[in-house]
Write a structure and sequence with these properties.
The chain has 10 helices and 14 strands. By secondary structure, it is of the alpha/beta class. The relative contact order is 0.17.
Length: 314
């Protein structure tokens, strides 16, 4: 069987807006993130293997992704893998996709979908933590959704921060480097994006203004977090699904262990946000900081992979 191979160029052709629309269409069509199959973790010599299945009536898919923390030191990608797309009724394979490229597009699209529903059309100040592929992807996704007046980039490596700043300027945005040690820039942010491999909080959560949105995507383990307890305890918290967040999101699980947050404090999941249930039922919650925590889920990969496959069809 000769499967179509959809590589990075095919996946990029969908674009951030196309990926966001695919995710929103899935949720608007009734997909319940709480019923999505769980991600499986397997420890391997190079790091961690993630197995992420998902299914609809029409299509089934599974991503096998590798997380190799040592790879960047050898100029290799930290995230590797492949995505197998199958026909739903027969389970016959119909396409194989580049799993790393799919993740690079999908993760920012999930964030951008939340941003579409949580922020105003104009962002005066975007604070971006991180300088890897997800930071670049998130910048592109935000610019596809919103007008941005200025960007502050914060990261650990000076030359990588400078490269991302220059990239943002080439996209027409006023961009500059920030101080990642103090990170006081969050005090004037409309949107804060956390796209790092940090296992400890990146900034003081008391500085984030009411009405600002914070998105964290860098961790998916119970013992790692990018934001502190202060931010979580004072925010309207939105997650992809409660089940996934309460299993994998250290950003929430650590404050829960400290007694500063509970599962009942979650304002809603991504479907609740997209369908307007949060705004209808808890409008006052959004007057506080809005915190969206993403760990990555299989239904998202399937929705985006299906859209890539449709777009690539002759």
């Amino acid at each position: 069987m000769n499967l179509p191979l959809l590589g990075a160029d095919d996946i990029k052709a969908l674009g951030p807006a196309g990926a966001v629309d695919a995710l929103e269409s899935a949720l608007s069509g009734g997909l319940d993130p709480e019923t999505s199959p769980a991600r499986h973790h397997v420890t391997v010599p190079g790091g961690e293997l993630l197995i992420m299945p998902a299914t609809t009536q029409r299509l089934t898919g599974v991503k096998i992704a590798g997380v190799a923390p040592g790879n960047p030191a050898h100029d290799l990608p930290r995230i590797t893998g492949s995505y197998l797309l199958l026909d739903g009724p027969t389970l016959l394979p119909i396409a194989l996709l580049d799993g790393a490229a799919l993740t690079t597009l999908r993760t920012p699209a999930v964030s951008a979908l939340a941003i579409r529903h949580l922020t105003e059309p104009l962002l005066r100040h975007l604070v971006l933590f991180g300088t890897g592929p997800q930071a670049y992807g998130h910048l592109a996704a935000v610019l596809a959704e919103r007008r941005v007046e200025r960007v502050t980039v914060l990261g650990r490596t000076t030359h990588r921060v400078a490269a991302l700043v220059e990239h943002a300027r080439q996209l027409g945005v006023d961009a500059r480097a920030g101080d990642s040690h103090e990170a006081e820039e969050v005090a004037t942010a409309d949107l804060v994006l956390c796209c790092t491999t940090s296992t400890t909080p990146l900034f003081d959560g008391t500085l984030v203004p009411d009405g600002a949105t914070v998105v964290a995507v860098g961790s998916h383990t119970p013992d790692a977090r990018e934001v502190d307890t202060a931010l979580v305890s004072r925010s309207a918290v939105i997650v992809e699904s409660r089940t996934a967040a309460l299993s994998e999101a250290g950003d929430l699980l650590i404050p829960m262990a400290e007694g500063a947050f509970s599962a009942e404090d979650i304002a809603g999941n991504l479907a609740d946000l997209v369908t307007g249930r949060i705004l209808d039922e808890k409008p006052a919650a959004l007057e506080r900081p809005r915190f969206f925590k993403s760990v990555g889920m299989g239904w998202e990969d399937l929705a985006v992979a299906a859209a890539v496959h449709r777009k690539s069809a002759p």
